[in-house]
Specification:
The protein is mainly alpha-helical. The protein has helices at 2-29, 37-70, 83-94, 108-143; strands at residues 75-77, 102-104. The longest helix has 36 residues, at 108-143.
């Protein structure tokens, strides 16, 4: 259980720092980008998807490593605990979709709960940043007469 709790703390730190750095980089680069203001919102959306994809991948890799090498549980369901299934389960959990076709057993259940909460917070952070960027760049586009 201690190894899973430690992994959870490390995963939270890695995913939050990753997200912070992506948003910080966007905040620094967007004002100086030489593209139309409304197109900057597409950059925000693609960057958010890339950040979330990277965070899902980190959780998926950690899940696979804990199942294969940590022997702290498994994914029970219609398929084995393969790398692809770990990524699928991670995406399903991070987004709080929760189909239930794969379920963690043992101490890995803690990681599933932590990932769901972490994903919910980070998706909310992306939504908040996107709203602020829309407000900033759409207002600027309308002031300049751009649509």
């Amino acid at each position: 259980m201690l190894i899973v709790a430690t992994a959870c703390l490390m995963l939270i730190m890695v995913s939050v720092v990753t997200h912070y750095e992506v948003l910080r980089l966007l905040n620094a680069c967007l004002p100086v980008m030489r593209i139309p203001n409304r197109s900057k919102l597409l950059v925000v959306m693609f960057a958010a998807f890339v950040a979330h994809g990277a965070e899902i991948a980190v959780y998926g890799l950690a899940l696979f490593a804990l199942v294969k090498y940590g022997a702290v549980g498994s994914l029970a369901g219609s398929a084995a605990s393969s790398m692809a299934n770990c990524f699928y389960f991670s995406a399903e959990t991070y987004t709080t979709l929760g189909f239930g076709d794969l379920t963690p057993t043992g101490p890995l259940r803690l990681m599933a709960g932590v990932e769901g909460l972490n994903g919910l917070v980070l998706i909310g952070w992306s939504a908040s940043y996107t709203y602020l960027a829309m407000e900033r760049f759409w207002d600027a586009a309308q002031s300049n007469g751009n649509r």
